[in-house]
Predict the structure.
Amino acid sequence: MPVLPEKHSSILLVDSDPDSASTLSALISSWNYHVEVLADGAAAFRRLNGANPPAMAIVNYELPSMKGFEVIAETRRRSRRQATWLMLMSAAADLEKIEMAHKAGVDDFLLKPVNETDLLIRLRTAERVQHLYHELQEQTQAVRFHSAHDSLTGLLNRESTMRLLFQETDRAQRTRTSLTLMLIDLDKFSEINIEFGYETGDVVLREFAQRLRRYLRSYDILGRYGEDEFLIGLPGCATHQATAMAERLQNTVLAKSYHVHRDVLSATASIGLSTSQGRSPLIILREAECALRNAKLAGRNCVRAFAQPTEPMLEIAELKLSDTVPPF
């Protein structure tokens, strides 16, 4: 007695012969599959290329509107991924039909009248192949995600962030709009690691990353730039707009304490800004780093926007957030 599938896979049966379709549908249904029956080639094509296509399809060679191999060939041509296991069914197995089936991209070829045991084995084999295919897809997507994202925070890593910033710079050049980079560095973060432990430090970084993600606009670019540094691309933001956003960030995101186990921690951050105006992100990033360095030199917990040098020493626009400056 063959082992029947526990889960109900969906199968599309396309056959214009009502007697044949009824018999085959009843047989497949008895094996715990959900069967959907169509009699027209064009209707089958729309179903296979619509939303939520079936897991498998058995398509008869002779159909109204479109031949069975045409349905399969067009489905394969339009679909970039193998969503449905496609089986072509025919009453004859001449070489011409087999060659057309092969060129159409069929996964299996069935002969009428269908042998029950043979069909069940083929369906179970198709399920196993599809299961392996979906597992491979999931693993591939996971590899792609991890190669582009920081493993601790889930944000974009440095390489992916820079790649998006280059793309956004191209768009800003075309549309003649601003793009401001905001570089954030958590102040004295190493002291948190030393006093509370690296595990607590990791919790703070993850929480800070999530706070930034919730705070920013959906189209802003956010990535982890270093151990305790975060890089943000702000499309359409001029320097004064980014400055106002940085100030709000200081007073909201950074003002909140971090509750880790029984510990309550506070963390401040220094922020450096630079606006692109279509220039290379590498140049803008160096300017943002310069502005951040000046924020650190000014006592931390403040915002600095890069200004073009007018003297040998860089002239930075000072944007104090409070009258008291924390000790360096």
Notes: The longest helix spans residues 116-148. The chain has two domains: 10-147, 158-319. The longest strand covers residues 179-186.
